Every structure is written in C-alpha cells, then in structure tokens.
Amino acid sequence: MDVTYIAYAIELEIPVVTDDQDMTAMAEVFDVNTMSTLALLRIMLDCQHVTRQTVGSLFEYWRHITDLPANFTADRRRLFPDL
Prior knowledge:
single chain; mainly alpha; two-stranded parallel sheet; 5% strand; globular
C-alpha cells in the first residue's frame, strides 16, 4: 500500500504524512516530500484546527498504548517544547 500513497503524492504534488521509516525511505527514492505526524499536528494547531489540549491528549494516548511515532521525543521537543 505504501507505494500507492507515494504514487498519489507524486500525482497530486503533495507530501506524504508518515512516521513509518521504511515508507519515508521509499518516498526519498521517488523524491516525494514527507512530513511527520507531529509536523502535521503543529500545522493544524497553528491554523486552529486542533487545540493544545487535544494535541496533549493525543500524546498521552500514544504513550498509554505504547505506540509513539518514530522520532517522537525529538519532534515533540522541536515542535511542541511546552507540551
């Protein structure tokens, strides 16, 4: 399925939002821009599509189910230093 999403990104000229390291590597092969889930959340917060409380709750949920996105700690510090 990853290659399907990469094909859509190429055709639509949009980035792929993923935290999957293998998909990120495949996207690089095809010169497709990628964005992490946390980067998308930052954009959504800046545009007021989500609240800080929602983002914080999502972080807690990911911790609770032990399913943090790749590079979560570094991305959180960089994009959400106060959360």
